[in-house]
Amino acid sequence: MSKGCTFYFVRHGETYLNLYRRMQGWSNIQLTEKGSEDVRRSGKGLANVKFDAVYSSDLSRTIETAGIILEENKDADDLIVHAMPEFREVFFGSFEAQGVDEVWASINEVMGYPTVGDLWSKATVPEQMNATKKADPYHHAENYLEFWTRIEKGLIELIKTHRDTGDTVLVVAHGNTIRYMLNGLVPELVAPQPLLNASVSKVSYYDGLYHLESYNQVDHFRDL
Q1: What is the CA radius of gyration of the chain?
Q2: How far apart are CA 162 and CA 159, in angstroms?
Q3: Which domain holds residue 102?
Q4: What is the DSSP string of the chain?
Q5: Residue 149: Cβ within 10 Å count
Q6: What letters, b where the CB count within 10 A reaches 16 and e where it falls short, cover 103-132?
Q7: 62 and 171 belong to one structural domain
Q8: Catalytic (active-site) positions
Q9: 190 in the same domain as 87
Q10: Is residue 41 one of the residues assigned to a domain?
Q11: Could you state one GO biological process linked to this protein (predicted)?
Q12: Residues marked as binding for substrate?
């Protein structure tokens, strides 16, 4: 077996749009006080993990989250955060910053399920994303192909840099980005649940395949 590499995918901390239950894709907004505290608790739990490289999306909430985690890490003095637009959240077009419940009701009108709950439980991720683009009055929201094409560019860059190095890599991104990405990469991850803020999902990559080690973990959090 090759050396491979290991990725720690971390979702950013809670933001004000999370708190207000509003759609948050490419919108830039800061972490709440609770969001910062949870990230620091997550960082303390990761303090002894020696990261060889750190990446984030280029949105402020992930860059802020990555910075807090590095502040708590015992071996991060020489590390810098590489911001990559490829790892942004899904773009929701004109639905950005609108109420979550209202937006999903609009998407469900396109899908035609009896309830939004049925939509979530029965429609695939590609179907949901394609319906979001159709429901957006401007049709600017990303569909699945647009999202995956963007994410794949970032993944190829990471694998090109870290494959067979044995490196441990921190990637701070977004709830849908990480969930949809891992759903597409890891065969055993079926219908993954939404990710908690500041949670960790650990994936190893070797012999050309991604292997899930943990998903949506918060039990490593430590008290401040």
Answers
A1: 17
A2: 5
A3: 94-141
A4: ----EEEEEEEPPPBHHHHTTB--SS---PBPHHHHHHHHHHHHHTTT---SEEEE-SSHHHHHHHHHHHHH-TT-TT--EEE-GGGPPPP-GGGTTSBHHHHHHHHHHHHT-SSHHHHHHHS-HHHHHHHHHHHSTT--S--HHHHHHHHHHHHHHHHHHHTTTT-EEEEEE-HHHHHHHHHHH-TT--SPPPPPTT-EEEEEEETTEEEEEEEEE-TT----
A5: 11
A6: bbebbbebbebeebeebeeebebbebbbbb
A7: yes
A8: 12, 89
A9: yes
A10: yes
A11: negative regulation of glycolytic process
A12: 11-18, 61, 175-176
Hunting for tokens 């939404």 — which residue is that?
194
83 in the same domain as 15: yes
- Whether pTM > 0.85 for this model: the answer is yes
Contact 18, 197 (CB under 8 A): yes
Q: Does 161 lie in the same domain as 66? A: yes
**Residue 86 shares a structural domain with residue 182:** yes
In angstroms, rounded to a whole number, what is the distance separating the alpha carbons of residues 75 and 72?
Answer: 9
Which segments are annotated as binding site?
A: 11-18, 61, 175-176
Residue 157 has, within 13 A of its CA and on its CB side, a CA count of: 15
Tell whether the model's pLDDT for residue 192 goes beyond 80.
yes
- 76 and 129 inside one domain: no
pLDDT for 1-28, tens place per residue? 579 999 999 999 999 999 999 999 999 9
What mean pLDDT is predicted for residues 99-107? 98
Pairing state of beta strands 209-217 and 200-206?
A: antiparallel
Tokens of 65: 């989250």
